[in-house]
Amino acid sequence: MENGFDLAAMQKRRDDALAQGENWTLTANELYFAWRLGEREFRSAIFEGSIRRDADFAKTDLSGIDLRWANLRGSSFHNANLEGAKFIGANLQFASLTRVNFQNADLRNADLWSADLRFADLRFANLEGANLGSANLRDADLRFTNVRGVDFARAKIKNARGAIGSIRTLGMSSDSDTLDAGINARGELIFWSEFQDAINATELRAEIAREYGDSAVGSFYLMATAMFEASFAERQRLADLRR
Q1: Long-range contacts of range 49-58, CB-CB < 8 Å, 24 or more positions apart?
Q2: Phi, psi at 190, each rounded to 5°
Q3: HSE (side-chain half, CA atoms, 13 Å) at 167
Q4: Secondary structure element (H or E) that encloses residue 26, with its range
Q5: Which residues on adjacent β-strands are paired with residue 40?
Q6: How many CA atoms lie within 13 A of 133 on its CB side?
Q7: pTM for this one?
Q8: Residues 6+ apart with CB under 8 A from 222
Q9: pLDDT of the chain along its 243 residues, tens only?
Q10: Among 170, 176, 181, which Cα is nearest to 227's?
Q11: Does residue 80 contact residue 63 with C-beta atoms inside 8 Å?
Q12: What is the enclosing helix (H) or strand (E) of 48?
């Protein structure tokens, strides 16, 4: 027992609920102290209270947990299972979310500014209204994810799988230079390169014309732009069908 926390009692309450196929309630202190004592099974927990910042839940099974509006700034969930978890409105700024399983997770209006989401699995997740500004989404899997109204301003998106991502074309200045595409808070497709300000497709085409004219390099940029537009249109079509 630590600070009055009874791990065995919590485990029994959890096991009884899971055996019945039900959710169970977990307070902030219980989650924190249970993790410190080595517990890693928190499936289907409904969270109550606020977690202290900079908590470390790496490699933890938190599938189905309800952490809406929790303050998780700077926390680590590296390689954790968060499938089906609810992070509605949660503060995940600067959180370490590398290789996290976010499949079917609800991240609506979550603040993921500067979060590290490299190699995260976000398939079928709901990111509607989330802030992913300056987040690192390199090699993340965003297929079938609802990203309507997401702010990707200055996000690092390279080799991401999904309707947003990065394309490297011939003529770019360096191996790290890419044409990036995302969706702004108004649900519009936007583009940027490296850390320049985001612009829409019309502005991008005008910039390509000024910079490259009718050259081969310009045609490659235009082709990449068209690919992003087609992918974005298909994502919007599928989102409308699911409503």
Answers
A1: 51/75, 52/28, 58/96
A2: -130, 160
A3: 19
A4: strand 24-27
A5: none
A6: 11
A7: 0.66
A8: 205, 208
A9: 667 899 999 999 999 999 999 989 988 788 888 988 888 888 888 887 777 777 788 898 899 998 888 888 999 999 999 999 999 999 999 999 999 999 999 999 999 999 999 999 998 899 888 988 888 888 888 777 877 777 766 777 666 665 466 666 555 555 556 777 877 767 788 887 754 667 889 999 998 899 888 887 788 788 778 878 877 887 778 778 776
A10: 181
A11: no
A12: strand 45-48
Tokens of 115: 């979060």
Place of tokens 């991502």: 165
Residue 97 structure tokens = 């979310």
Domain boundaries, the chain: 1-49
Angle at 188 between CA 184 and CA 190, to 5 degrees: 70
Query: How far is 169 from 167, CA to CA, in rounded Å?
Result: 6
CA nearest 70: which of 37, 42, 98? 42
Q: How far apart are CA 59 and CA 82, in angstroms?
A: 10
First to last CA, the chain: 48
In angstroms, the Cα distances linking 144 to 11, 123, 172 are 35, 6, 29
Question: CA 234 → CA 72, 186, 211, 223, 228, distances in Å?
Answer: 34, 18, 29, 17, 10
For 89-238, where are the E strands, in sequence order? 165-167, 179-183, 189-193
CA-CA distance, 75 to 18, in Å (whole number)?
26
